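TA notes. Do not distribute before section.
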Amino acid sequence: MKLMMIIMQSSDVDVIVNALTENAFRVTHIASTGGFLRRGMSTLIVGVEDEKVDEAIQILRFNLSPELDPSMRRATIFVLPVEEFHQV
């Protein structure tokens, strides 16, 4: 199991959340602020089975809006190992 933390522009959140949930990924959305200009960002937290990580990344690549400035990044994705989790 992996935990994906995806930091992205808030303008892309609805499209990405819809694309992930349509493909049976469960997503938690957190509004956040960061970066040099302190602009609105969003963080998505997604629990993913190991074999589904590449699929989730492909969904992100396909659905993120193109960046007009090539020096800007569309998203930062962290993939972290999960040894154990509980739902109560």
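Switch to the second chain here.
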Amino acid sequence: LVRLRLESFAANKSLTPIGNIRGFGSMLGFDIVESHGSSQPVMEGAKKVTARAHELGLILLGCGMQSEAIRLLYPLTASEPLVDEGMSLLEQALKS
């Protein structure tokens, strides 16, 4: 469910471009990239998205050597509506 949403965000040209989606289960990561279809991370991009998400009430984890990636880690016991709410907030953060 979450990976599919991330892949739909990556394909959505009206959102901040994301790529390099990776991980298993409830721990997934992705990069903010230069352009749609690119795999080149934008170092300040992840910081901007995590800050905007925080303003919206969603806590995201920056990770990587230079905090170029965003990590999602939600409890396996999280309800589907709660996870959906978090993904909607992430989508809003990617619109900024």
